[in-house]
């Protein structure tokens, strides 16, 4: 999405340059000098980079103020020079302190003219199509001899395991054991040095994050990744974007409103499902850390996953929130969704997981039921240290 936005902006810039050359019938480097680049930066920062009105306000203010200051300052100081650059620099410092979003955005918010966040559609909306559920006991994920090396550092070495539909598998281990590296490889954020990953019998090693998500393998992150200034509803709707089929051109021309309504309805459904129904219109950044983690799970659920990777979902949650999260994961399990989670809260893991995989120094040291793992000498040594 960022690449598409960059290319569209570059296209506008190219058209503007062509029109400039056509209108002037002559091109010289002055409008493209370092000083001009600094002025463009002033325009963006003063007006606000997140708003079209910010670009207009910033450009107009800097252009007119520059002409005025070029006449006024030499008269006041008794000498010539680019003193207006100093004034603009001080103005930018003051604005970044008092109005970091820029003049247009800040004043628009104070006057009630800011961006209006979308709301759930009223009335009945055709639901998005859902994937065919996996059969009970079907092997969703197979990992075979997975290894990841960073130079001489071995983060994962010959890790193998399976995850079945309707099963909760927990991956535990001390800090630095290689759990997050394993998750990054499973979700195609990182590429294994060797080994293979199979999802529903098809090899997905190295196929790319977007395709992995499209097939139904979705994740949350160890550190919350949300868009804080967008509403909770918008953040969750982003998780369903691969379930839409309208093109970028349709979105630019606003021809995708019916599909957008379906995506927003799906987002509302998932927010209610995870217990955040009363925060639908709240800014995501205003939610507590525990609520933001639940918001990430709702966003992943909006993609209609078959396998859910949860990286420390209980971190920062209070006792009742953990209970609610546990109930939610058991519900997902009953619906046939496979859950693979990394977690440090042993009480939460042992009371929830069907099986536990323990890794240490990048290697599997134990696998089995929670009771089997808790009594395993290698696991006790990894967590508590050996006895001489």
Describe the overall structure.
This protein is elongated. Helix 8 packs across helix 10 and helix 10 crosses helix 11 (289-301). It has 388 residues and is of the alpha/beta class. It has helices at residues 2-24, 34-47, 52-77, 84-98, 103-110, 179-186, 209-215, 232-238, 248-252, 257-273, 289-301, 319-334, 346-350, 370-374, 377-384; strands at 139-150, 153-164, 168-172, 194-199, 202-203, 217-219, 307-311, 338-342, 355-360, 363-368. The strands form two sheets. It has a six-stranded mixed beta sheet, sandwiched between helices. A four-stranded antiparallel beta sheet has the order 2-1-4-5, covered by helices on one side.
Structure at a glance:
The protein is of the alpha/beta class and 388 residues long.
Task: Compile the SSE list and pairings.
Layout: H1 2-24, H2 34-47, H3 52-77, H4 84-98, H5 103-110, E1 139-150, E2 153-164, E3 168-172, H6 179-186, E4 194-199, E5 202-203, H7 209-215, E6 217-219, H8 232-238, H9 248-252, H10 257-273, H11 289-301, E7 307-311, H12 319-334, E8 338-342, H13 346-350, E9 355-360, E10 363-368, H14 370-374, H15 377-384
Parallel strand pairs: 3-8, 3-9, 6-7, 7-8
Antiparallel strand pairs: 1-2, 1-4, 4-5, 9-10
Shape by Cα distribution: elongated
Roughly how many Å is the radius of gyration?
Answer: 27 Å
The tally of helices reads: 15
Number of E-state strands? 10
- Strand proportion, as a percent range, falls in 15-25%
List keywords for this structure.
about 400 residues; alpha/beta; six-stranded mixed sheet; 15 helices; about 45% helix
């Amino acid at each position: 999405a960022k690449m598409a936005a960059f290319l569209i902006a570059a296209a506008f810039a190219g058209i503007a340059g062509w029109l400039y050359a056509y209108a002037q019938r002559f091109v010289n480097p002055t409008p493209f000098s370092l000083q001009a680049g600094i002025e463009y930066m002033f325009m963006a920062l003063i007006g606000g980079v997140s708003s079209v009105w910010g670009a207009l306000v910033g450009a107009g203010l800097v252009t007119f103020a520059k002409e005025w200051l070029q006449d006024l300052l030499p008269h006041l100081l008794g000498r010539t020079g680019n003193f207006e650059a100093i004034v603009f620099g001080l103005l930018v410092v003051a604005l970044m302190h008092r109005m970091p979003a820029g003049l247009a955005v800040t004043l628009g918010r104070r006057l009630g003219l800011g961006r209006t966040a979308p709301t759930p559609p009223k009335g009945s909306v055709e639901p998005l199509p859902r994937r065919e559920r996996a059969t009970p006991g079907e092997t969703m994920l197979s990992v075979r001899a997975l290894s990841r090396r960073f130079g001489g550092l071995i983060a994962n070495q010959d890790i193998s395991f399976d995850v079945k539909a309707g099963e909760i598998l927990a991956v535990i281990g001390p800090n630095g054991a290689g759990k997050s590296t394993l998750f990054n490889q499973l979700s195609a954020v990182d590429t294994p040095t060797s080994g293979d990953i199979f999802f529903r019998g098809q090899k997905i090693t190295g196929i790319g994050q977007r395709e992995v998500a499209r097939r139904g393998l979705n994740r949350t992150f160890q550190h919350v990744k949300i868009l804080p200034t967008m509403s909770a509803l918008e953040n969750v709707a982003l998780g369903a974007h691969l379930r839409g089929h309208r093109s970028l051109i349709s979105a630019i021309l606003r021809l995708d409103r019916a599909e957008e309504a379906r995506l927003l309805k799906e987002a509302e459904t998932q927010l209610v499902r995870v217990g955040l129904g009363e925060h639908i219109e709240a800014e995501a950044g205003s939610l507590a850390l525990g609520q933001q983690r639940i918001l990430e799970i709702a966003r992943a659920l909006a993609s209609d996953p078959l396998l859910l990777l949860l990286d420390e979902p209980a971190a920062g949650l209070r006792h009742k929130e953990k209970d609610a999260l546990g109930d939610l994961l058991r519900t997902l399990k009953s619906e046939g969704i496979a859950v693979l989670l990394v977690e440090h809260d042993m009480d939460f893991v042992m009371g929830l997981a069907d099986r536990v995989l323990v890794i240490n120094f990048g290697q599997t040291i134990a696998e089995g039921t929670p009771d089997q793992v808790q009594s395993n000498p290698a696991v006790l040594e990894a967590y508590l240290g050996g006895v001489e």
